[in-house]
Amino acid sequence: MNRREFIKVSAAGLFLSSLSGYGDLMGGMETKRVGLIGCGWYGKIDLLRLIQIAPVDVVSLCDVDTKMLAEAAEIVASRQKSGKKPRTYSDYREMLKEKDLDVVLVATPDHWHALAMIAAVEAGADVYVQEPISTDIVEGQAMLAAARENKRVVQVGMQRRSTPHLIEALDRVVNEGLLGKIAHVEICCYWHMRAKGNPPDIKPPEYLDYEMWTGPAPMRPYNEWVHPRGWRAFMEYGNGIVGDMCIHMYDMVRWMLKLGWPKTVTSSGGILVDKASKANISDTQTVLFDHEDLQVVWQHRTWGESVYKDYPWSAVFYGDKGTLKTSVYGYEFTPLNGGKTLSGEPLYEYDKYPEDRTEKDLERHCASAVRWHMKDFMSCIADRGRPVSDIQEGYISTAACILGNLSMELGRSLAFDPAQGCVPGDDEANKLLKRKYRAPWTHPEPTKI
After folding, report:
1. In which band, very low, low, confident or very high, does the pLDDT at 338 lie, cut at 50, 70 and 90?
2. Do residue 157 and residue 188 come from a single domain?
3. Is 223 a member of any domain?
């Protein structure tokens, strides 16, 4: 049985069983009116995958970059069935005032996720929000509460849970017990992805509303790294490489091994090598997520050699019967003491979606994962169920990664109590669970449901 055949019978049996009747649902579903907040790189990737798989009419786009906004409007008009160009907005609040959107995608920089997502569910929309869901833990609590209070379906863009070859690895290896007892998982990123250098502070370009782009974050002098995509170099807008890359691998491990909250989170590291760069995120960091009889250990290093040459961004599961290496590019299972090895690779669907071959900036190896994630999202909108990457799962994985950064800052382990929403007996840590917002923006607070 080749890989494609296996996916049809195995992955489809596991994941798409949750989408039973999906085709009927889509065929019978009324066209959903869609809006996108954040028209940059992954905002367009998400939106264009949604257009591919569901009856939608993209009617609204929002971005503070007028050039990016105009480009996105042209692309959407060329790709959606109606051929219509969406309305465009520079302020998401004005877009949501229309109260005419069924679905909203939030793909802004991280520091804007919370306010935009909460406003969208309060406007009556179901939401697909990028990960990490928040930049602090209280934001995440407020987002979860808002989703539940407003009875909205919220899918988080942690699409490893919908990646065909990883579903295959889960089904073939983990669920079949081929690994035996799993007590240790190493997750990592060794890509040299931290920005280097010291670009000068300059005036923001005329097409960018930098005041609105900054929003609730601290106001920093503008430089060429800030927009687009380079904002990840600064902790003011996100949570560094742990918040950007660790969350995907950690969430994947939680999903595959059915893990909840870690008992403790312990981290060390910092800027140990590239001290000259303007970037203020760590270049070296280790995080231990302790799940009692299972330890998940993260390591990133933006310098030197990768430990896993073919798996520089990955999760490696160690069992007493074998080892499973997984990444966005494939998986390999190696049993101990001989036996059959297993492997898989990404699912490319060029026969169904030939436009994937030429789409600008598309991560082609991840396109099917985003589509499958969107299918799950739309199916849950139809039956009002909880998606595979429900906002609660996004909250847990995001909060655990934030705790990793706080542990590194404080120099000690943190034991978070999700029922109380705090670190019991640690006032210093609890003060860091909520960032200070820049006026006039107000930090969201969780409500009791």
Report:
1. confident
2. no
3. yes
Q: Is the dihedral of CA 278, 279, 284, 289 positive or negative?
A: positive
SS3 content of the chain, % helix, strand, coil (to 5): 40, 20, 45
> Backbone phi, then psi, for 137, in 5-degree steps?
-75, -35
Return the number of other C-beta atoms located less than 10 Å from residue 354's C-beta.
9
User: Is pLDDT at 326 greater than 60 in this prediction?
Assistant: yes
Angle value at C-alpha 257, between 422 and 18, nearest 5 degrees: 100
What CATH number has the domain bearing residue 55?
3.40.50.720
Burial (CB < 10 A; 0-12, 13-18, 19+), residue 338, is exposed
- Over range 304-323, report the average pLDDT: 96
The secondary structure of residue 92, as a DSSP letter, is H
The upper half-sphere exposure of residue 360, i.e. CA atoms within 13 Å in the direction of its Cβ, equals 7
Residue spans of alpha helices (H) in 170-317: 210-214, 240-241, 247-257
pLDDT digits (tens, 9 = 90+) for 178-188: 999 999 999 99
Statement to judge: residues 113 and 208 lie in one domain: no
Q: List the CATH number of the domain containing 298.
A: 3.30.360.10
Counted domains in the chain: 2
Q: Is 290 helix (H, G, I), strand (E, B) or coil?
A: strand
Residues of the chain with pLDDT > 90: what percent? 92
Q: Are 308 and 188 in contact (CB under 8 A)?
A: yes
pLDDT of residue 13: 46
- Parent domain of 215: 178-355+394-431
Asked if 403 contacts 46 with a C-beta cutoff of 8 angstroms, the reply is no
168-172, 202-206, 335-339, 435-439: which has the minimum mean pLDDT? 335-339
Are residues 328 and 163 in contact, defined by beta-carbon separation less than 8 angstroms? yes
The answer on pLDDT for 16 being more than 90 is no
Residue type, 169: A
